[in-house]
Design goal:
Protein name: Oxidoreductase
Strand content: 5-15%
Family: Belongs to the short-chain dehydrogenases/reductases (SDR) family.
InterPro entries: NAD(P)-bd_dom_sf (IPR036291), SDR_fam (IPR002347)
Largest sheet: 8 strands, mixed
Strand order of the largest sheet: 3-2-1-4-5-6-7-8
Keywords: Oxidoreductase
Pfam family, one: adh_short
Order of helices and strands: HEHEHEHEHHEHEHHEEH
Number of helices: 10
Radius of gyration: 18 Å
Length: 330
């Protein structure tokens, strides 16, 4: 695996793995401007991908991203498909449109859409708590529906990859298997909801790789880094973050750790896409999945509930199937 400095930028990551970008098809969720997904898409365009498809909820937020890609390299095919991850009808429709647009061949799927620390207990159309819905369940359904295209992409020399953008927030809570809905909101805590959703994304990466690695599809979960330029936490004030440490201790008995190694506490907007891009592109990682990446490298999660455990991984898969009302067996 190529070793990068802790300050590596998205541009540097793409330049290092340009052959793994050229001529390939990338699907990215939630790449409205400004976001981690939009940063990733614009940087990928510099290395001549065949097709960049952005699936996002709001077209007007994606149009500037597509315009920037076209200005950079008009030869790169770009597609926008409307996707509301909190609405399973929308996810199923979008999946069919993505399969058609990509001619059922996807090399890399980057699940970057998400929300964080919703102050009010909110349910999606299906009755699922909204953080669990958007961060994990919608992506679980979408990814499985796109698996035929990923399996086609897996036949190429570099195989196929799925990248789940999680967060160090996974430390806050394990998946609440016995009460994923917080007693219908009566015991809801915004940081616990965020933590369980981010843990689920890690367990999903493990579970998907368990099922598809022998067919060339490998999944990784990664923390891109903390950043204040995106709109993810725009509804929060600094005082809201003071609850993270005590909530983590209460839920897990462990202390919260913001960084690993020499990782800076905050990444710049130019750096925020680097770790997901390394996870998506580094050919040396193919044999190391499933894995969790932080600060540009594979590390073991510091929270016990996010370390690979087949029982927990399979339990999360079954819960996810129940929430989407469909079984996925490979």
């Amino acid at each position: 695996m190529t070793v990068f400095a802790s300050t590596v930028t998205s541009e540097q990551a793409v330049a290092a793995f340009a052959p793994q970008v050229k001529g390939r098809t990338f699907v990215i969720t939630g790449a409205g401007q400004p976001s981690i997904g939009s940063s990733i898409a614009i940087e990928l365009a510099k290395a001549s991908p065949a097709h960049l498809l952005i699936a996002s909820r709001t077209a007007e937020n994606v149009h500037p991203v597509i315009a920037a890609i076209r200005e950079q390299d008009p030869s790169v095919k770009t597609t926008f498909i409307q996707l509301d991850l909190s609405n399973h009808d929308s996810v199923r429709r979008a999946a069919q449109e993505i399969l058609a647009a990509t001619k059922s061949k996807i090399d890399v799927l980057i699940n970057s859409a998400g929300n964080m620390a919703l102050k009010k207990y909110t349910l999606d159309k299906q009755g699922i708590e909204m953080q669990m819905s958007v961060n994990h369940v919608g992506h679980f359904l979408l990814t499985n529906l796109l698996t035929p295209a990923l399996l086609t992409g897996a036949k190429s020399p570099y195989g196929a990859r799925v990248i789940n953008l999680t967060s160090v927030g996974y430390q806050i809570s394990p998946v609440r298997f016995d009460d994923v809905s917080f007693c219908d909101g009566k015991t809801y805590d915004m940081w616990t909801g965020y933590g369980q959703a981010k843990t689920a994304q890690i367990l999903f990466a493990y579970g998907l790789t368990d099922r598809l690695k022998n067919r060339g599809v490998v999944a990784f979960a990664c923390h891109p880094g903390s950043n204040l330029d995106t709109k993810l936490g725009s509804h929060l004030v600094m005082d809201d973050y003071s609850d993270v440490l005590p909530t983590t201790k209460r839920n897990t008995g462990q202390e919260f750790s913001f960084t690993v190694g020499d990782e800076p506490r905050f990444k710049t907007y130019e750096q925020i896409g680097a770790t997901p891009l390394i996870a998506a592109l580094d050919p040396d990682l193919a044999g190391r999945g499933p894995a969790y990446l932080q600060n540009g490298e594979v590390v073991e999660p510091v929270a016990r509930h996010a370390v690979y455990d087949k029982g927990g991984v399979d339990r999360c898969w079954r819960l996810s199937e129940e929430l989407v009302g469909q079984k996925f067996e490979y």
